[in-house]
Amino acid sequence: xxxxxxxxxxxxxxxxxxxxxxxxxxxxxxxxxxxxxxxxxxxxxxxxxxxxxxxxxxxxxxxxxxxxxxxxxxxxxxxxxxxxxxxxxxxxxxxxxxxxxxxxxxxxxxxxxxxxxxxxxxxxxxxxxxxxxxxxxxxxxxxxxxxxxxxxxxxxxxxxxxxxxxxxxxxxxxxxxxxxxxxxxxxxxxxxxxxxxxxxxxxxxxxxxxxxxxxxxxxxxxxxxxxxxxxxxxxxxxxxxxxxxxxxxxxxxxxxxxxxxxxxxxxxxxxxxxxxxxxxxxxxxxxxxxxxxxxxxxxxxxxxxxxxxxxxxxxxxxxxxxxxxxxxxxxxxxxxxxxxxxxxxxxxxxxxxxxxxxxxxxxxxxxx
Length: 368
Known about the structure:
Layout: H1 2-16, H2 31-34, E1 45-54, E2 62-73, E3 78-89, E4 94-108, E5 112-127, E6 138-139, E7 143-144, E8 156-176, E9 179-193, H3 195-199, E10 217-227, H4 229-232, E11 238-249, E12 260-271, E13 274-282, E14 292-303, E15 311-322, E16 333-342
């Protein structure tokens, strides 16, 4: 009986598609999913893959996977990215698939860059109606023995989607007693997913063709990389990287009561090639037991040698300890991210900057 009830719930959510987008725990590991303006932030060719499994014990749970490939053209101050992603949830199962292109233009300044990105994606939702169980099919003693009066809708929905974003990356100086020790890099960004739903009528993403839109999602995020030179000395590289993300999704994104809100904050601690981190996720800006959604713990490895013709990578595994919703008994959330960058590949067009200017595309420094 419990299993049949869960099937009905998953099916109902699938018809109306009012649930929020997938949220990655390691949100800076897959930067294109976070903000299209990040496209081409690294020199050369970069590939990123993400895999997420949550609530595995709740009738199959939810699985999400994504892959991106990025390319930077510094001579054109541009970045180009290709992405593909998909998910599967419930016993029906409800499946999603998306493929798209991203373009970002980089405006260089002396000690900062402004990135502006636009993303297009082709999306497809699928549902197997034959595996759904409805309440009018159930007998309190014998279970599902009746036929349902529900008229099945389409088993596939196709729609187009757009997103845009902007990121400001800038260098700052760390100093002690008025003496500069080292520059460190920070950034702040803003992105809008499902752009047409924010500006007007978005595409119909309902299996019943009931003019049900996917609500717009607005994300504000930021972070910094602080080299702890007073600890690292001359032989070890120690980095502290605090980050935050605030997401709001709904048809009235400016209203906290009318939209889904998720606030995430935490820090990475990098010692040479070992990465550890902890993040706190809340359904409101004000932390508290009532609003706590989960805590994430990360362990991974990175190669921070960013010289020409060298390869860099990041591998991170995280686990979310759920505090609300289905809770710990559901199996929690596991996420694996891998990023690999080949910097030695020459771009199609290289531009020599004049000696009189220091404006250039900033490298992706140290950790991200």
